[in-house]
Amino acid sequence: MPNLAHSPKLNKSHSMSDTDIDKLTNQDSSLVEVLHVTQRDNKRRRINERQISPECSDFRTIIREELREMLNTLQHQQNSRLDILEKYITEIKAQNESTLQKNLDIEKSIEFVTDKVNNLQLSINALEDERKGLTSQISKIDDKCDMLERLSRKTSIQIRNVPNQKAETKEALFGMISRLANSLDIKLQVTDLRDIHRMPMKPGQASSTVVAEFSSTLHKSKFIIAAKSHKVTAIKYKTEQLNSAHLGIEGPKSEIYISEHLTAQSSRLFFLARELRKSMGYDYCWTANGLVYLRKKHGEPYILVKNESQLQSLRKK
Question: CB 305: neighbour CB atoms within 10 A?
Fold first, then answer.
């Protein structure tokens, strides 16, 4: 009969309960597992350290070098960029300073030019005031000269459109005025005329103006009034107007015109006043004692025309 192995008998003093045995068994089991895991990790760690450590060290070194180079390169690039920026900023500052200086120079130049312009404007204003003063003085002198000339002509009349005569003398001219006075029913003595002459004429001109100076304004006024009366009568009764035949001149008849011997200034004013009468509907325009007059309607006050500005003002009314 084979030998059977029997488990040794347990001492009563070491007997355990089932619960204790289970706990112990579980603890041993956990401890064994922990030991096994720790041993495996240690083995792996030792194996990895032996196998990977040299390569890892080189790799780390390479990475460090590359990172260092990259950082150096980046730093160099950043430094280069900063240098360029600093250079640009320096140039911009220099340009700004130059621009500011130029602006200051321009401002100074503008101030200088402004002062010059102001001085020139003051000079121009002074010259303008002086010109106005001189113009006023010249105008006064012209008025005085015109007045003196008008006074010298206050006893003279002019007969326009008188045909020219060959070998004409003062006696011949006096004869013309005498025959004209007879036609106007005026008694004219030799002493009533102070002078008589023909005005200069252009070459080839067939007629010109004869000026007769009387000894007094009374004789002149009689002659002018008689000539106007003859004109009114001729218009009213449609008779012959004064012409060259009334002067005793033979040949084709040409109408003659008798008026005061006006100055150049008064003649122009008279011409402009007649134009105004036609355009503005004035009824009367005449001369007396070398002056020009206008009247809008019969019975209204007359207007003494003194200058061209006055005529322009009348046109605006």
Answer: 21
The pTM (predicted TM-score) of the whole model is: 0.60
Render pLDDT for 232-241 as a digit per residue (tens, 0 to 9): 999 999 999 9
Residue 36 forms part of a structural domain:
no
Domain boundary among 113, 131, 152: 152
Strand order of the β-sheet with 193-198 is 193-198, 207-214, 156-163, 257-260
End of a domain among 94, 126, 152?
A: 152
User: Distance between CA 227 and CA 184 in Å, rounded?
Assistant: 7
Within a domain: 41: no
The domain of 112 spans 55-152
Label residue 153 exposed, middle or buried (CB < 10 Å: 0-12, 13-18, 19+).
buried
Inside any domain, residue 253: yes
Within 13 Å and on the Cβ side, how many CA atoms surround 283? 8
Q: How far apart are CA 239 and CA 253, in angstroms?
A: 14
Average pLDDT over residues 160-176: 91
**Contact between 276 and 317 (Cβ < 8 Å):** no
| Coil/strand/helix, residue 5 | coil
The predicted model gives 122-133 an average pLDDT of 96
Pick from 5-9, 46-50, 263-267 the range whose average pLDDT is largest: 263-267
Cα angle 293-294-295, degrees, rounded to a multiple of 5: 130
Predicted confidence (pLDDT) at residue 224 exceeds the cutoff of 80: yes
Q: What is the dihedral of CA 257, 263, 267, 270, to 10 degrees?
A: -100
Question: In this predicted structure, what is the pLDDT of residue 54?
Answer: 66
